[in-house]
Amino acid sequence: MASTAKLFTPARVTQALSHPDAGPRIVFFSGGSALKETSQALVRYTHRSVHLVTPFDSGGSSAALRRYFAMPAVGDLRCRLMALADHSWAGVAELHDVLAYRLPCNANTVHNQQELCALARGEHPLMIRITEALRSAVCPFVQYFAQAIGQDFDLGGASVGNMVLAAGYMQHERCFN
Predict the structure, then answer these.
(1) More confident residue, 87 or 164
(2) The whole model's pTM is what?
């Protein structure tokens, strides 16, 4: 009679919860939002997961950046990174709010440009809520992005997290490393 092994016994789950750095190794192939809830829950059990996220997002802010800058789409990557973020660290929840924020779709161009400038200067209400250390890390990327776009770039619906990733990509010689 063949025996069957249980991968997730109660003891193994308890061990993973107390030592996620030694948790199971898992590989995921997907888009960014497909496993959002799974990724958020997974962080409690393992820090040894590998996520291969496709750079082909064709919607909204990510698609606009992809077309404008001839770069891979970053929206799914942003979504997965935010899902995997450790929210137990001080300030991460507030940083999450900044990176998840989208400029209004229905606002006029001047309003969105003013809001982008406030974000870049660290004066936007969401930026004021994050720590000075996090603000000084994020603002330069938003500033770089603001300088990289032209007047023809439509900021309606633009995600701040996508802006940060796009700026980092461009600043690092079009490399995500």
Answers:
(1) 164
(2) 0.84
